[in-house]
Amino acid sequence: MKPTTVLTAAILLGFLAPNCFAQPLKVFILAGQSNMQGHASITTFDSLADDPKTAPLLAEMRGPAGQPRVCERVWISSVGCLGDAYSDLTEAKGQLSAGFGAPEDKIGPEFTFGLTMEKKLNEPVLIIKTAWGGRSLHTDFRPPSAGPFVLAKQTQELWDQHPDGAHGIPKTEERPQFYAEKAAATGVYYREMITHVKKVLKDIKRVVPDYDEKQGYELAGFVWFQGFNDYVDGGVYPEQMNPGGYDPYADLLTHFIRDVRKDLSVPKMPFVIGVMGIDGLRGDKNAPMMHFREAQRKPAALDEFKGNVLAVETAPFWDDELEELSTRMDTYWPAVDAKVAEEQDDSWENKMKHMAKNYTPAEWERLKGVSNGGYHYLGAAKIIAPIGRAFAEANLKLFKK
Known about the structure:
It contains 14 helices and 9 strands. By secondary structure, it is of the alpha/beta class. The two termini are 46 Å apart.
């Protein structure tokens, strides 16, 4: 064989070798509260089928036999409320599929986020999810650089006017305990989040068995999907009905982005903010929702974050028809309860038999797409699945920059 032929063959073999010039493992962090955990039941998947906008996504979510697809090149480590134990640090790990929500029969944004990453990147991916229900940014996830929790000025003035307590205000003698509990709770889940991320990165093979340490890893993005506990807290945000009423949240989120990047040593790590979409597009016209969304968007507009922070709107994925059908159910419950009491059969099956009489067959079939309350995006895969995909696409847009 001629020397040039040998050289050519060697070069070709080099390109074909599986680990030659292998890309670092892409690592994405998903964090937040209950809607990042995920409350969309697997039973609601079928609701994506009849909408041309979501039917193609459903095809990606299912395997050949119709079961939830298992990713070949995406792994996940998820902590939060998982399973019956509802322990803060219960971990679920393995190849990504449906069932990494809260609990195991549900999905959050992680499922379609991972599916999209696998499709677009065509290389191994690791998702680290840290999400706990009912947690605030002002206390639970409070970033270190934001300093200690301080009561809003207006709220403090109101407390001063009622030393003996009223309207849920603690009495003067009860306030030291309030502040002590706040101090103890401040930043706990921020620290747990960072601790778990570092734990996984220290021993990636524990989650990704075939991980090659020579290949290394790259922290390629962070997605933040949180807000409900801040949104409803009028004591922390007393001006919530007015423009700028949630500016303290925007300030906290700005500190959060900086601190996460600092603590994980990735100064320009792509960061995606999921803007609250509860109430759909009408929320952009009604306070306090419109003001809260404005606050969530603000960090992405700062000069220091241009090109590496994006706010993703989730309101366009809301389903007004599903919400209307679900809301109507509330008005029917008194009559349904009375009927099942009369029949002395309060089984769930009997209740649903009488509830179905209030809907057309098509409406009743459509209602199968709902598995939770509005604050959990109706527990609808038709809403949550496109959100997960949108988060991935935004993250990829930043990463490619």
